[in-house]
From TrEMBL:
It is found in: Cell membrane; Membrane. InterPro entries: ATPase_OSCP/dsu. GO terms for molecular function: proton-transporting ATP synthase activity, rotational mechanism. The gene is atpH. This protein is part of the stalk that links CF(0) to CF(1). It either transmits conformational changes from CF(0) to CF(1) or is implicated in proton conduction. Keywords: ATP synthesis, Cell membrane, CF(1), Hydrogen ion transport, Ion transport, Membrane, Transport. This is ATP synthase subunit delta. GO terms for cellular component: plasma membrane; proton-transporting ATP synthase complex. Belongs to the ATPase delta chain family. NCBIfam families: ATP_synt_delta (TIGR01145), PRK13430.1 (NF009967). It is a peripheral membrane protein. Pfam families: OSCP (PF00213). It comes from Microbacterium pygmaeum.
Length: 263
Protein backbone atom coordinates (compact mmCIF):
# COMPACT_ATOMS: atom_id res chain seq x y z
CA UNK A 1 0.00 0.00 0.00
CA UNK A 2 1.47 3.35 -1.07
CA UNK A 3 1.81 6.31 1.28
CA UNK A 4 -0.87 8.22 -0.63
CA UNK A 5 -3.33 5.38 -0.13
CA UNK A 6 -2.43 5.05 3.56
CA UNK A 7 -3.18 8.73 4.17
CA UNK A 8 -6.32 8.61 2.05
CA UNK A 9 -7.66 5.56 3.88
CA UNK A 10 -7.16 7.28 7.24
CA UNK A 11 -9.01 10.37 5.99
CA UNK A 12 -11.94 8.32 4.71
CA UNK A 13 -12.19 6.32 7.94
CA UNK A 14 -12.32 9.59 9.87
CA UNK A 15 -15.07 10.84 7.56
CA UNK A 16 -17.10 7.69 8.22
CA UNK A 17 -16.85 8.24 11.98
CA UNK A 18 -18.38 11.70 11.55
CA UNK A 19 -21.53 10.39 9.84
CA UNK A 20 -24.41 9.80 12.26
CA UNK A 21 -26.85 8.11 9.91
CA UNK A 22 -25.06 4.89 8.98
CA UNK A 23 -27.39 1.91 8.49
CA UNK A 24 -27.34 -1.41 6.67
CA UNK A 25 -28.53 0.28 3.47
CA UNK A 26 -25.48 2.55 3.55
CA UNK A 27 -23.25 -0.51 3.66
CA UNK A 28 -25.26 -2.20 0.90
CA UNK A 29 -24.94 0.87 -1.34
CA UNK A 30 -21.21 1.14 -0.71
CA UNK A 31 -20.76 -2.50 -1.72
CA UNK A 32 -22.79 -1.82 -4.87
CA UNK A 33 -20.60 1.19 -5.64
CA UNK A 34 -17.47 -0.90 -5.11
CA UNK A 35 -18.73 -3.45 -7.61
CA UNK A 36 -19.72 -0.78 -10.14
CA UNK A 37 -16.40 1.04 -9.93
CA UNK A 38 -14.37 -2.17 -9.83
CA UNK A 39 -16.12 -3.54 -12.91
CA UNK A 40 -15.28 -0.48 -15.02
CA UNK A 41 -11.62 0.37 -15.58
CA UNK A 42 -12.74 3.60 -17.25
CA UNK A 43 -14.78 4.69 -14.23
CA UNK A 44 -12.22 3.63 -11.62
CA UNK A 45 -9.46 5.34 -13.57
CA UNK A 46 -11.44 8.58 -13.85
CA UNK A 47 -12.35 8.63 -10.15
CA UNK A 48 -8.76 7.86 -9.07
CA UNK A 49 -7.24 10.49 -11.39
CA UNK A 50 -5.75 13.04 -8.97
CA UNK A 51 -4.98 15.40 -11.85
CA UNK A 52 -8.71 16.00 -12.33
CA UNK A 53 -10.37 18.65 -10.12
CA UNK A 54 -12.01 17.34 -6.95
CA UNK A 55 -15.34 18.82 -7.97
CA UNK A 56 -15.23 17.10 -11.34
CA UNK A 57 -14.76 13.72 -9.66
CA UNK A 58 -17.51 14.49 -7.15
CA UNK A 59 -19.80 15.42 -10.03
CA UNK A 60 -19.18 12.00 -11.60
CA UNK A 61 -20.17 10.34 -8.32
CA UNK A 62 -23.35 12.40 -8.12
CA UNK A 63 -24.23 11.72 -11.75
CA UNK A 64 -23.85 7.96 -11.37
CA UNK A 65 -25.04 7.31 -7.83
CA UNK A 66 -26.97 10.41 -6.75
CA UNK A 67 -30.29 9.27 -8.15
CA UNK A 68 -30.43 5.94 -6.32
CA UNK A 69 -28.22 6.20 -3.23
CA UNK A 70 -28.81 7.89 0.12
CA UNK A 71 -27.24 11.34 0.55
CA UNK A 72 -24.92 9.95 3.26
CA UNK A 73 -23.58 7.32 0.85
CA UNK A 74 -23.05 9.84 -1.95
CA UNK A 75 -21.26 12.14 0.49
CA UNK A 76 -18.93 9.34 1.60
CA UNK A 77 -18.19 8.38 -2.01
CA UNK A 78 -17.42 12.03 -2.81
CA UNK A 79 -15.00 12.11 0.13
CA UNK A 80 -13.32 8.96 -1.15
CA UNK A 81 -12.78 10.24 -4.69
CA UNK A 82 -11.48 13.56 -3.34
CA UNK A 83 -8.48 11.73 -1.86
CA UNK A 84 -5.24 10.91 -3.66
CA UNK A 85 -4.89 7.16 -4.28
CA UNK A 86 -1.78 5.26 -5.34
CA UNK A 87 -3.82 3.31 -7.90
CA UNK A 88 -7.36 2.78 -9.15
CA UNK A 89 -7.37 -0.63 -7.45
CA UNK A 90 -6.64 1.06 -4.12
CA UNK A 91 -9.66 3.31 -4.66
CA UNK A 92 -11.92 0.29 -5.20
CA UNK A 93 -10.46 -1.42 -2.11
CA UNK A 94 -11.17 1.71 -0.07
CA UNK A 95 -14.84 1.74 -1.07
CA UNK A 96 -15.07 -1.94 -0.14
CA UNK A 97 -13.36 -1.34 3.22
CA UNK A 98 -15.75 1.51 3.96
CA UNK A 99 -18.69 -0.79 3.16
CA UNK A 100 -17.39 -3.38 5.64
CA UNK A 101 -16.90 -0.75 8.34
CA UNK A 102 -20.38 0.66 7.68
CA UNK A 103 -21.87 -2.82 8.09
CA UNK A 104 -20.08 -3.13 11.44
CA UNK A 105 -21.58 0.17 12.56
CA UNK A 106 -25.06 -0.76 11.35
CA UNK A 107 -25.41 -3.66 13.82
CA UNK A 108 -23.32 -2.69 16.84
CA UNK A 109 -24.68 -5.45 19.08
CA UNK A 110 -24.33 -8.29 16.57
CA UNK A 111 -21.40 -10.71 16.70
CA UNK A 112 -20.37 -9.89 13.14
CA UNK A 113 -16.75 -11.00 13.65
CA UNK A 114 -17.87 -14.34 15.05
CA UNK A 115 -20.33 -14.88 12.22
CA UNK A 116 -17.67 -14.12 9.61
CA UNK A 117 -15.22 -16.43 11.34
CA UNK A 118 -17.82 -19.18 11.32
CA UNK A 119 -18.31 -18.70 7.60
CA UNK A 120 -14.55 -18.78 6.98
CA UNK A 121 -14.37 -22.12 8.80
CA UNK A 122 -17.31 -23.43 6.78
CA UNK A 123 -15.44 -22.58 3.59
CA UNK A 124 -12.18 -24.05 4.91
CA UNK A 125 -13.89 -27.32 5.83
CA UNK A 126 -15.67 -27.67 2.48
CA UNK A 127 -13.28 -27.73 -0.50
CA UNK A 128 -16.16 -27.99 -2.96
CA UNK A 129 -17.72 -24.83 -1.55
CA UNK A 130 -14.41 -22.99 -1.69
CA UNK A 131 -13.95 -24.12 -5.28
CA UNK A 132 -17.46 -22.99 -6.23
CA UNK A 133 -17.00 -19.56 -4.64
CA UNK A 134 -13.56 -19.11 -6.21
CA UNK A 135 -14.42 -20.26 -9.72
CA UNK A 136 -13.82 -17.66 -12.41
CA UNK A 137 -16.51 -19.27 -14.52
CA UNK A 138 -19.28 -19.04 -11.92
CA UNK A 139 -21.97 -16.37 -12.04
CA UNK A 140 -21.14 -13.72 -9.43
CA UNK A 141 -24.73 -13.09 -8.36
CA UNK A 142 -25.24 -16.86 -7.97
CA UNK A 143 -22.25 -16.97 -5.60
CA UNK A 144 -23.84 -14.22 -3.50
CA UNK A 145 -27.18 -16.06 -3.46
CA UNK A 146 -25.41 -19.26 -2.35
CA UNK A 147 -23.77 -17.50 0.59
CA UNK A 148 -27.09 -15.93 1.60
CA UNK A 149 -28.79 -19.34 1.53
CA UNK A 150 -26.04 -20.82 3.71
CA UNK A 151 -26.06 -18.04 6.31
CA UNK A 152 -29.71 -16.98 6.41
CA UNK A 153 -31.03 -17.46 9.94
CA UNK A 154 -27.56 -18.42 11.20
CA UNK A 155 -25.72 -15.09 11.02
CA UNK A 156 -26.35 -11.38 11.46
CA UNK A 157 -27.62 -9.28 8.57
CA UNK A 158 -24.32 -7.40 8.46
CA UNK A 159 -22.25 -10.59 8.26
CA UNK A 160 -24.47 -11.97 5.50
CA UNK A 161 -24.19 -8.73 3.55
CA UNK A 162 -20.40 -8.64 3.91
CA UNK A 163 -19.81 -12.28 2.98
CA UNK A 164 -22.28 -12.35 0.07
CA UNK A 165 -20.90 -9.08 -1.31
CA UNK A 166 -17.25 -10.08 -1.10
CA UNK A 167 -17.70 -13.33 -3.01
CA UNK A 168 -19.22 -11.30 -5.85
CA UNK A 169 -16.20 -9.02 -6.21
CA UNK A 170 -13.16 -11.18 -5.52
CA UNK A 171 -10.83 -9.56 -8.09
CA UNK A 172 -8.33 -12.45 -8.10
CA UNK A 173 -8.54 -12.82 -4.30
CA UNK A 174 -9.54 -15.99 -2.42
CA UNK A 175 -12.95 -15.90 -0.75
CA UNK A 176 -11.70 -17.15 2.61
CA UNK A 177 -8.93 -14.55 2.75
CA UNK A 178 -11.45 -11.81 1.95
CA UNK A 179 -13.72 -12.90 4.79
CA UNK A 180 -10.84 -13.05 7.28
CA UNK A 181 -9.74 -9.55 6.24
CA UNK A 182 -13.32 -8.35 6.70
CA UNK A 183 -13.42 -9.90 10.17
CA UNK A 184 -10.30 -7.94 11.13
CA UNK A 185 -11.78 -4.70 9.74
CA UNK A 186 -14.99 -5.18 11.72
CA UNK A 187 -12.96 -5.74 14.88
CA UNK A 188 -10.83 -2.67 14.17
CA UNK A 189 -13.94 -0.57 13.62
CA UNK A 190 -15.15 -1.66 17.04
CA UNK A 191 -11.82 -0.92 18.70
CA UNK A 192 -10.61 -4.43 19.26
CA UNK A 193 -8.37 -7.12 17.81
CA UNK A 194 -9.31 -10.66 16.84
CA UNK A 195 -7.27 -13.68 17.94
CA UNK A 196 -7.72 -17.16 16.52
CA UNK A 197 -7.12 -19.81 19.18
CA UNK A 198 -6.49 -23.42 18.18
CA UNK A 199 -6.74 -26.06 20.90
CA UNK A 200 -7.02 -29.84 21.08
CA UNK A 201 -10.25 -29.68 23.10
CA UNK A 202 -13.01 -27.17 23.74
CA UNK A 203 -11.88 -24.48 26.19
CA UNK A 204 -14.10 -23.53 29.11
CA UNK A 205 -15.58 -20.05 29.43
CA UNK A 206 -13.25 -19.36 32.37
CA UNK A 207 -10.20 -20.38 30.31
CA UNK A 208 -11.32 -18.16 27.42
CA UNK A 209 -11.83 -15.20 29.73
CA UNK A 210 -8.37 -15.62 31.26
CA UNK A 211 -6.75 -15.94 27.85
CA UNK A 212 -8.56 -12.88 26.53
CA UNK A 213 -7.39 -10.92 29.56
CA UNK A 214 -3.77 -11.97 29.11
CA UNK A 215 -3.78 -11.15 25.39
CA UNK A 216 -5.54 -7.81 25.94
CA UNK A 217 -2.88 -6.82 28.46
CA UNK A 218 -0.09 -7.93 26.14
CA UNK A 219 -1.37 -6.10 23.07
CA UNK A 220 -2.83 -3.07 24.82
CA UNK A 221 -6.27 -3.45 23.24
CA UNK A 222 -9.41 -5.47 23.73
CA UNK A 223 -8.92 -8.92 22.18
CA UNK A 224 -11.86 -11.08 21.13
CA UNK A 225 -11.33 -14.79 20.61
CA UNK A 226 -12.36 -17.12 17.81
CA UNK A 227 -11.74 -20.75 18.68
CA UNK A 228 -10.93 -23.80 16.58
CA UNK A 229 -10.75 -27.34 17.95
CA UNK A 230 -8.00 -29.34 16.25
CA UNK A 231 -6.94 -32.63 17.90
CA UNK A 232 -3.66 -32.63 15.94
CA UNK A 233 -2.24 -29.93 18.22
CA UNK A 234 -2.30 -32.68 20.93
CA UNK A 235 -2.29 -30.22 23.84
CA UNK A 236 -1.60 -26.59 24.65
CA UNK A 237 -2.64 -23.71 22.41
CA UNK A 238 -1.77 -21.97 19.19
CA UNK A 239 -2.81 -18.31 19.05
CA UNK A 240 -2.66 -16.06 16.00
CA UNK A 241 -3.21 -12.30 16.10
CA UNK A 242 -2.66 -10.67 12.73
CA UNK A 243 0.88 -11.77 11.74
CA UNK A 244 1.86 -12.83 15.27
CA UNK A 245 1.72 -16.54 16.09
CA UNK A 246 2.13 -17.82 19.64
CA UNK A 247 2.54 -21.58 19.38
CA UNK A 248 2.54 -23.31 22.75
CA UNK A 249 1.07 -26.56 21.46
CA UNK A 250 2.50 -29.97 22.24
CA UNK A 251 2.71 -30.75 18.52
CA UNK A 252 4.91 -27.69 17.99
CA UNK A 253 7.22 -28.68 20.83
CA UNK A 254 7.48 -32.23 19.46
CA UNK A 255 8.26 -30.91 15.99
CA UNK A 256 10.94 -28.66 17.46
CA UNK A 257 12.41 -31.59 19.38
CA UNK A 258 12.51 -33.76 16.25
CA UNK A 259 14.25 -30.96 14.38
CA UNK A 260 16.88 -30.61 17.12
CA UNK A 261 17.51 -34.36 17.17
CA UNK A 262 17.81 -34.47 13.39
CA UNK A 263 20.19 -31.48 13.39
Amino acid sequence: MGSATTQATAAVTTALAAVTSIDIDTARELFAASRAVGDSSQLSGALADSSAPDQARADVVTAIFGGSFQPATVSLLSTIVAQRWSSADDLVDAIEELAIRAAAIAEPDADVEGDLFGFSRLVADNPELELALGSRLGDESAKGALVISLLQGRASESAILIASSLVQQQRERRARQLVIRAMDLVADQRGRTVATVVSATVLSQAQLQRLAGVLSARYGTTVSLNTVVDPTVVGGLRVQIADDVIDASVSARLADLRQRLAG
